[in-house]
Amino acid sequence: MIVSYLRSRLLQALVAGILIVGPALAQAEESTADNGWQFAIAPYLWGAGISGQTQRFPIDVEIGDILDNLEGVFMAAFEARKNKWMILADYVYLDLAASRPRPVSGSEINLNMEGTVFHLAGGYNLYQEKSSLDLIFGARNLDLDLGLSTVIMSNPVSRSQSGNILDGIIGLKGQIGLSKRWYLPYYVDIGTGDSDLSWQAMAGASFRAAKWVDLALVYRHLEWEFKSDKLLQDISFSGPAFGAIFRF
User: What would the pLDDT profile of 124-149 be if each residue is shown by its tens digit?
Assistant: First the structure.
């Protein structure tokens, strides 16, 4: 009991939500002294809710429900930059089981979701002064196991779907410099492939606390739209996020 309680508290301390803020937060500064590699790693907390639509049921899970029903999570983002070129990677693992009432019948919709989201992208710097702008191109992979169950007219109904969704993406990533310590990071991309459409957008404010660490508060939205014959029609994750960007 004590171990389970401590594990639950630790997970809640590690995440204020789910999924990634990493592609936008991890930003290594371009070297002005030499042409060596510059690196950044960004642990983060994302207070995101989940919404979506299946063929028969809506999905609506708020952040409080996520924290109460979270069974496992892991998040990490990394960026490497040399001259005008960069490599960006971000990985998220999520295991969630939650229940939501159906507004019409009064029965519950039971949701089980386990999956990973992985971004791998390259980039090229288009502008670098007080502000910066990078062109991003790469891939986004969603590996998802989804299970839904409910009761309709006293009959139990359940559906499940597993799949791997790989999309090519293109986007922009950068920051607007306000002063030596303050800047506004932003990120936007759009993709398609196995999904009809996927996209994400982020914007916020960052503070350069020291030469080796920045603090950032942003709002981020990530969404997929799937083929019409799939159980899951669309799904999105959105909410505020806080992260620390360590440079080396």
Answer: 999 998 899 999 999 999 998 877 76
